[in-house]
Write a structure and sequence with these properties.
Elements lengths: L1 H33 L2 E2 L4 H6 L6 H9 L1 H7 L6 E5 L2 H17 L12 H9 L2 E3 L4 H4 L6 E4 L5 E8 L11 E7 L10 E12 L2 E6 L10 H4 L3
Parallel strand pairs: 1-7, 2-8
Antiparallel strand pairs: 2-3, 4-5, 5-6, 6-7, 7-8
Length: about 220
């Protein structure tokens, strides 16, 4: 009888510990993803200090001086979605694949007309602060105008982790709405890092799989 009571007690203790572990796991992922990375400098300074990770983006910003100045202006608050070098490689490779098929010479970032760079790069920048806290209540995403008044959408979501639905890290999905209310026409891209708070705004990093310009570069330069 005492042995039976002992086993029952052990079983109840294991169940209680298991429940506590699951609850702790949920809280861990939620709290981890809620943290902000504070950077004591402007958004432009952050990009410049990350080694070679943003070389292509910085090259583009040199040719889009108004946006570059905005990202370095401490008196303005701007939310910016940054693309790593890989995103530009994806866009240039897609562009040149089409050009090669029609026997045209290759193009590189420095060959892209400034007007096209302006248009595409502005779509990643927004006046004001848009972080995960500001966007979490918009289940279907929030339509936001970029600084050149182009319609974009930003959606909040939480990934799954350790079998827990919604228990992973927070992400934002940035979408080019292509001037349509129908999502099937949108081009979207996930973030890999969110909520980097700089002295003049909020910075999010797009996943390396992102195609700079939301796959528009090849179309614009091959018409």
């Amino acid at each position: 009888m005492m042995r039976r009571i002992y086993y029952i007690g052990c079983l109840l203790l294991c169940i209680l510990l298991g429940f506590t572990a699951c609850k702790k796991g949920n809280t861990y992922y939620e709290n981890y993803s809620l943290k902000y990375t504070e950077y004591k400098g402007t958004t432009l300074q952050f990009l410049e200090e990350q080694g070679s990770t943003y070389d292509s983006l910085l090259l583009v910003l040199e040719r889009v001086p108004d946006l570059r100045a905005k990202l370095g202006n401490v008196s303005e608050k701007t939310t910016f979605f940054a693309s790593t070098n890989n995103s530009f490689t994806n866009a240039i490779d897609a562009l040149n694949a089409v050009r090669q098929a029609s026997n045209r010479s290759k193009m590189y970032l420095e060959d892209i007309p400034k007007t096209i760079l302006d248009t595409l790069t502005y779509h990643y920048a927004f006046d004001g602060i848009y972080d995960t806290d500001a966007l979490r209540d918009f289940v279907e995403g929030k339509e936001v105008l970029s600084i050149d008044k182009y319609r974009m959408s930003i959606q909040y979501k939480v990934t799954s982790a350790s079998g827990i639905v919604g228990g992973g890290q927070q992400q934002l999905v940035l979408s080019d709405m292509n001037n349509s209310i129908f999502k099937r026409y949108w081009q979207e891209s996930n973030t890999s890092v969110v909520n980097i708070r700089t002295t003049n705004g909020m910075l999010h990093i797009l996943a390396p799989s992102h195609n700079f310009g939301f796959s528009k570069l090849a179309k614009l330069l091959n018409n």
